[in-house]
Amino acid sequence: MGAATAVFATSALHAAGTPAGTPIQNTASATYDDGGATITVDSNTVTLVVDEILDIVVTSADPGDIAAAPGELNAVLSYTVTNGGNGPEPVLLTGDPNIAGDDFDPDAISIFIDTDGNGNYDAGTDTLYDPGNPPVLAADETITVFILGDIPAAAADAERSEISLTATAATGSGTPGTVFAGLGEGGANAVVGSTGATDVDSGFYVIVDANLNLTKTATVVDQFGGTSQIPGATITYQLTSEATGTGSLANVVITDAIPTDTTYVTNSITLDGAPLTDIADADAGEFDGSGITVTLGTVAAGTTNIVEFQVVID
Is 226 exposed, middle or buried, given 0-12, 13-18 or 19+ CB atoms closer than 10 A? Predict the structure, then answer.
């Protein structure tokens, strides 16, 4: 062990040290004088074979919690797995979706290997992990591993789920320094390194569930200054849109038909107090002859928008 440690510390060519299975040979010599002649004597040659270090590192590759929606299928978490040893090693992978203390567990998970090495999950390209045929990582090699989870429909906004990935050297694991005789590269021993030849890290889902509430009110002002609902009175309709939850809602469009027996007041549409035109142009409003449309686009949760327009009772 001491000699192997010295080789690891002084090697500059390999981050994991001298490759496993490399023979280290050394022959000593001695000289002496014999009647005026110098005689050289060689020792026998000692050959040692560098043992294989078993070191595995797992790291979550996500920048933070991964947003997922209730009922979403195949939500992707990313991890990197590194062979920190000095020889090729098959790596066994295990995902655990049932970690105590989080808010929910996925209905199912699956593990995929990043086949094309681009760091992104590509359906139909990346390889489903086969426990009977684990990936073999060269010394110092890092691969990306994905866990795909099916999110329960009952998962609620802002809830989190922890999913761990464990990677273990197929040759063996245990207390650092444990020796697996003859199981290393080239028939050398395999020696458990500082990680114990196994490692685990977690990724997290967070539920992002935005919803839209829309309420409508009407205010009447008649031509005599009162509030009677008589012909000639003006009705101002107010539509209040509230985005709740977290995240955002895409392509939000508010529409309202002009009621029968009323006439739309030209250019009466407003959005949050700002006037909009009736024609289809750069602003968000439009009147098409039968109703109004206001396009809000992407709306972040926590946002309230107010749309108003007017009609006159016929």
Answer: exposed
- Token readout for 215 is 């309420």
8: DSSP letter? H
Burial class (CB in 10 A: 0-12, 13-18, 19+), 194: exposed
Q: What is the pLDDT of residues 51-95, one digit of tens each?
A: 999 999 999 999 999 999 999 999 999 999 999 999 999 999 999
DSSP track, 181-246 = TT-SGGG--EEE-TTTTEEEEEEEEEE---EEEEEEEEEEE-TTSS----TT-EEEEEEEEEEESS
Residue 178 in contact with residue 51, Cβ under 8 Å?
no
Inter-residue contact 158 to 207 (CB < 8 Å):
yes
Cα–Cα dist 15/31, whole Å:
39
Measured CA to CA, the distance from residue 59 to residue 66 in angstroms comes to: 15
Whole-structure pTM value = 0.74
